[in-house]
Design a protein that fits this description.
78% helix; mainly alpha; 254 residues
Length: 254
Amino acid sequence: VSTLVGRWWSVRCDCVGGLWGAVDDLILTLSVHMPGEEHRPAKETIMRLCLLSYRLCYNQIAGKETVTDLQEHVTAGLMTKDELDGIKDLDSKPQAIWVWIGMMVHGLADKGHIKYKEVSVPQLDALCAKGRGAIGALFTYTDTQIPFPYVHLLTLMVIVTNLVIAIKGGIVLGSHMFATSFDSVFVLTELCHITVIPFFYHSFVKLGCELSNPIGTDFFDLPGHAYHIFMRNEVMAFIRAGELAPANLKEGRP
């Protein structure tokens, strides 16, 4: 269980958290270079593509990558019809989206919207690579099962242990029935031992199965939709902060 909890936490921090951080840093940097409202469409397009990449991770992990499944993102406004036509036959769609994000960044740099592009563009490219790398790490976890012999042995040990506890409890309680005196505390303790301990053993096995893949809709899974909203709100705060910055800050004056 401790191994699977560590796996769950790594998915949250290194994979989802890594992608989240890359998206935030990318929009933060663009909002510094392009603070004006006239640049909002470009920044919002990049934000939309970043969020689309995140949502497509859930599609790929759940095996829902048909045109009908992807059409839901078009309906929700996360993807255009042309973008759907462009990625519907591609493998690893969430990672492929970052190619488009990088192309958007280079297009803005070529138009002179990003200052010192010889330095800034490589840094933005690194953020795109960081986002793609976080998605790749996520799929490394979700596409790799816990070794079956280990899981099988652990489950067998739990079942055998519970069986031994049940046999031992039956023998002890049965022999106690023929004792000269009846000890109710002893009987209650033995019954608790027979029922509670096996319950927790099986609970831990079930918990481990649930924690092995936290990307989904189970109770123990990460709140994917909530993270989507949190990510969007953070990014929009960066965009608005650039647009609403006081004139003295934009000009570098105290």
